[in-house]
# Entry
Amino acid sequence: MLSVEKKLVSCLEEGREPTLSGLGGVEEIITNYEYFATSSFVAELADLFFAEYDMLSFGQRAVIDDFVIMAADSLSDEIQTKEFVEVIDKYDLPEKLEDSICKSFLKLAQDLEKPDMTRAFALDEVLRLACKKESRRFLLFAFLLDVSSTESPILIRYISKILGIANSYWPTDDALASLNIFFEVDEARSESAYEIAMFYLRKGFDALNNDSAKDNFSTALMWFRESSKHAEVRLDAELYEICLAILVEFSFDDLRNESVTNAASRLQEVAFLYEAWVEGDETICWLGARRTEVVNWVLLAKSMEGLACALKEPSWLEAKIVIEKYLLATYTASRTFFQQTSSGVESIIRPCVEASLIKEKGQLHHLRQWLTSIEPSEYKDTAEKLIAKLDRRLEENFVNPIEATHFDHKGVAFLMAENVPSVLREAYSLAVSLTAENTSPIFEEVLSTCDNELRKNIDYRTDRVRSVFLPVLAFTLRFLESRMDHTKGYHSSLKYLYEMDPLPSEDDLQRDYYDFMYGVLPVSSLEVSNVGGGRSDVLFQTKGIKFVAELKKEESDCSFSGLQKQYAAQATEYQNTNVTLGILLVLDLTLKNSGAGHFRDLVKVTNVHRFGDDCPRDLVIIKVPGRRKTPSGLK
# Structure
């Protein structure tokens, strides 16, 4: 150990701040720079050099530059590398020297002989330097997008994070393709899923319309759930999951949905844990912007939760607080929470808020009163424009078909169109009203459960697909309900549901189901061949959307797990060229000495993740009880 190193050790042991002069002067150290470039104290020496860099001569700086590059090329120990990276990041070094450091660390990251964490910390420094200069960014992406999934799993986990961070600064669709590849590596699943979620979160935030925002936020929510699922603790992903779940409820339902308010306590709990975790973790300084963004989303979610509670009421006791703290703050979410002019968040929130104000005249009255009584406010201009917009709609007697379905489950959107004859509008409206009023709470519960599960599906989340699949599902459940209610004596065609010899076939169920569905939904075709290379029992096709109700019979194992194992692959094969949704309708021919079972126990949404698919497929499995006995024949 040279005398310089001994003096440095002595300073550190005694708690004194080392200086170049205290170690013998800059010349003594520079004379042995090649030795010190591989020393265990390379980070400490680099810190001393950079602290006095501007005071050194041109020749001394040139030697120090050589020392830094040689040190970067020689790094191997991961702790030493991390310390060296943090020293470099403390100082604003000459551009030319930073260019050289960037190339050296990129070379270090590519060195397969180096430890995984040494390579990861080297990439960390390249990312920091890339934030300062565009050309370095291209070098970084060239490396990141060329990483193979055969690399070390630990390194891929860190590369997923760095690629995601880089992509948040400089978005590119190429990053998404790489992250999907990294997701197949077990050790990297949580990190890559989180970064895929962040990719879609940004796309949702930048969306220009409601549908695009809704699709991207829903996809982000799905990937945050994946990230949480593949990690023991993932507070950041869980926070986003809760916040986006509330936002997605806004997009698909109305603000009165109880699931919006039920998330409040969990949000508070996870936010507290996350804050404690952030305070105790200072290892990744360049994640600060992301941590701020998480906090902003939490504040928005809390505001949405407060608004959801307020909009349940026709009027407010403390209207000023509701309007300023919740309604207008949420209505201007981009400016209030994210300091931006507009975002896809508002394209989701605003239609729901506007529809509620139109429906509940008391809420709109409060807003008018507030506007006339307040002093100049940051929200005054927004409130004036909002009221003017609502007044125009009220004057035109305008009803938005989408909002009609949001706020009145008896509404039929197409009936609101101007070209529909009044008598037809009246007849169908009355028919829908009668159906809704006579719906059992169990039926509504089962349909709602299916709908909530299906919202995780990327296709179902679009209004266009949901407007087709949901009615088919509802009437399929109505088919099941009617067949469970009717007795054998009701109609001879239903005898296939009771004990008979020989046992019925799928054709009996097919005929009955098709006849029922044809009477209520004129969108089905029977026995269509060459769909997915196999046979489809009932094909529903309209508006460019098509999906299949696969019909089967089962005599041995009619458990949901057994049906999924036996038939899910075939049923989802029909989804290859259109929406990833389908129905499996099974005639249950197992013995039923204890009865047909309860309606809610006969329906389940199952998720099928096929190898090679980026997104899972969804199948609604519905069991139609067969081989039934009369009540007197039950044991």
About this structure: Residues 288-310 form the longest helix (23 residues).
